[in-house]
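User: C-alpha cells for this one?
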Amino acid sequence: MFRRGFWVALGLGAGATSAIIASRWARRQADRVAPATIAREAKGGFLDLGKLVSESIAEGRQAMEDRERELKAQLPATDFTDVPPNRPD
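Assistant:
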C-alpha cells in the first residue's frame, strides 16, 4: 500500500509540475505573438531600416563630393578673365 501511495504522489507531483511548466511556456508564446509585441518589433525594424537608408544617402553624398573634388583637381587651372562675356549684340 505504501508503494502505491508513493507512486500516486510522485505521478501527481510530476503531472502538476508539467502542467505549470506547459502553461508558463504557452503564456510566453502567446505574449510573443501578441499584436502589441509584433507592432513594437515591426516599429523597431522600420526605424533600423530608416537609419540604414539615411546613412547610405549620407555616405553616397560624401562619395560624390570626394569624387567631384578629385575631378576638379584633375582639370587644368584655367583663368577665365581673358574670355569675353557671351553677350548678344
